[in-house]
Amino acid sequence: MSQYVGAIDQGTTSSRFILFDRAGEVKSVAQKEHEQIFPKPGWVEHDPLEIWNNTVEVIGTALADARLQASDVAAVGITNQRETTVLWDRHTGQPLHNALVWQDTRVDELVARYARDGGQDRFRAATGLPLASYFSGLKLQWLLDNVPGARSKAVAGDALFGTIDAWIVWNLTGGAEGGLHVTDVTNASRTQLMNLASLQWDDTLLDALNIPAKILPKIVPSSQVYGVANIPALEEVQIAGILGDQQAALVGQACFEPGEAKNTYGTGCFLLMNTGNEPVPSQAGLITTVAYQFGSDVACYALEGSIAITGALVQWLRDNLQLISASDEIEALAKEVEDNGDVYFVPAFSGLYAPHWKESARGVIVGLTRYANRSHIARAALEATAYQTREVLEAMEQDSGIPIKELRVDGGMVANELLMQFQSDILDVPVLRPTIAETTALGAAYAAGLAVGYWSDREDLKQNWSLDKRFEADMASNDRARLYRSWQKAVTRSLDWVST
User: Fold this and answer.
1) What distance in Å separates the CA atoms of residue 146 and residue 143, rounded to the nearest whole number?
2) Is there a contact between 445 and 5 (Cβ–Cβ < 8 Å)?
3) What's the rounded Cα separation, in Å, for the pair 214 and 199?
4) Is 323 left (phi over 0), alpha (psi -120 to 50) or beta?
5) Element (H or E) spanning 200, and its range?
6) Bridge pairing between strands 364-366 and 407-410
7) What does DSSP say about strands 223-228 and 45-46: parallel, antiparallel, or unpaired?
8) How far apart are CA 436 and CA 75, in angstroms?
9) CA distance linking residue 390 with residue 41, whole number of Å
10) What is the pLDDT of residues 252-288, one digit of tens each?
């Protein structure tokens, strides 16, 4: 029997391929960044061909580094940046435009137009989502209406739409020569085109957003054998799992019971709570989403709070302000001061996501005095992630009626112990960092492995979870309250900067 399960982890800034063993430990990993394209303020694009070529490269590198071949891989799962929207020619495989990234805000005017007729929540009952530039449906409408020839190709059946998972699977299984055009329920739930109850594309939504049904991928479970790979490095390996990145992290953290929650600290920050087999409507600015569906089992749902800019803020300090030369220098710089010096950084570069959903907000740094220095700004940037997480967690407790007793964490930023301690302090709950930090890729591997019998069931996966470090709150309650009040005041300063 094959020894490993592979995971393609296609993220906002890079593509990775990771091989896991039965204990969920990493055997081999390869990673490559791709270009971030900013044509105009608020516009963010990726080159889909660069992403695909990088994916092929990291698969080959990870296998070669471990001296493994396709026969050593039992199955491959895919996890991906969600909402990022690709439109391509079904006959040539060429993208009709760069991918519109989830952070892209060019559809703000469309959001406002649709909200004028029915309000921001006009589609929430069917989709669990508010009207926002975040989701794929309006991005797809923009591509169809603004790329020359795109709508006519779509109407003729010559164009295909997909989020990044669908683009990867299509290319991985043959592309223009018979590639599978599928997406799983978690990714479909982020398009604002799928009905949460039926788990199918909704004709009413398609009509409202003027989307031709024939360009949409088939919706499939998150864990199922879809087909086999048709590239040399993975020839005939079964493709058996697809999960949007944050749902993959929930699976990787083994949060299979209602009330269990995880937070992933990456380019953005995403807090998900398992709510069981029934969708829970949000009254507090959260998203109701599909958590996963394993084979023919009933789908599991989640509440999610999405924060647009967390790790991306550290990258911005590195690349735009050149405050640091490498992202991992941020912790040492922030530790040079004892506190934030009353400086607060609200990184509303793409507006504010959950729980505010304010498209017109923009980033601000407040509380500056002559005393403030680069270390205070670095510390304020890290603390912004923790404050935003608290906002989401409070909304989640309000919607679910379940107090969160601990928070499981993962993602690149969890190595930053200053941030993890401050997160526990500002939440006043323990923060648990697992031994295996690659939970997003691990979740995709779990989905694929379950489909082919590499792991028997969810109990197998729970046994793999182990604790690396537990961070306990160590802040006086009056200090916690004072800092959070100041953060909330800073948020008000970021609102309504852009006039719509």
Assistant:
1) 5
2) yes
3) 17
4) alpha
5) strand 200-201
6) unpaired
7) unpaired
8) 20
9) 28
10) 999 998 888 899 898 888 899 998 998 988 888 888 9
